[in-house]
Amino acid sequence: MQDLHKEKIKIKQQFLQEFYEDKFLNNKINEKYSSPHLISLEAKNINTDIMFIGQETNEWYGNWEDVYTRGIAEQMSIYKNFMDTHYSSMNNLFFKYIKRIVNNNNNNIVPVYTNLFKFDLGDDSRVKNISNVSKETLSKIIEFHRGILSKEIEIIQPKIIIFFTGHNYDKLFIDPIIRKDGDYKKLYRKIDKLKCDEWKCCHLDIKEFEGFQNFTGVAYRTYHPMYLNRNLNKFGSEIVEFLMNKVDNII
Q1: pTM for this entry
Q2: DSSP 89-117
């Protein structure tokens, strides 16, 4: 059984590498941007049933042109080394919340994590967040990202996905790529077990998204942990406890 699991992971890793090679080596974008955040499933204790999705990277190991020198396999190994070496000791709120939700029962599970945007604007950029770039730049970045997340999910096949994105990034990513009658918020589904409304935390029916039709798991979206933490007493604790229970059911 263990050997079969390892073989499945190996196959998924190979599919990811082939996809990344086609996407990131054959489609150029601004070379001052950071190097791309490419998932590796070779990280220790990784559990492909659980995926967390953030907003964008924050200084991800060099710039875009480095990937042409490194190659895709080495670029993916950066992710593996980060998860193996730094993940457990990361103290920013994003990783604190992931570890709190996943390690509720003191297990050593490492989830898959990625971002809506696979790179940031680079160390030398005066504008640090993709949400603040010009419309022209944003349009090019969004167009580049079409099909990336859906393909990652198709290959990895997680059972549960948690979007730590917040509305600014939902609007940037979901609205232009996956419109639902002109309003991405129509994809938010109320969770009956939560007192808070779907604006704060919802079931996100990503099977309605173009390219995500074969997803068989469940997906939830909520605010970025920085905002959840600021509103811990209002609704943050309720959302975290709900997500903990959902992940427990998967584990």
Answers
A1: 0.93
A2: G--SHHHHHHHHHHTTTS---EEEEEESS
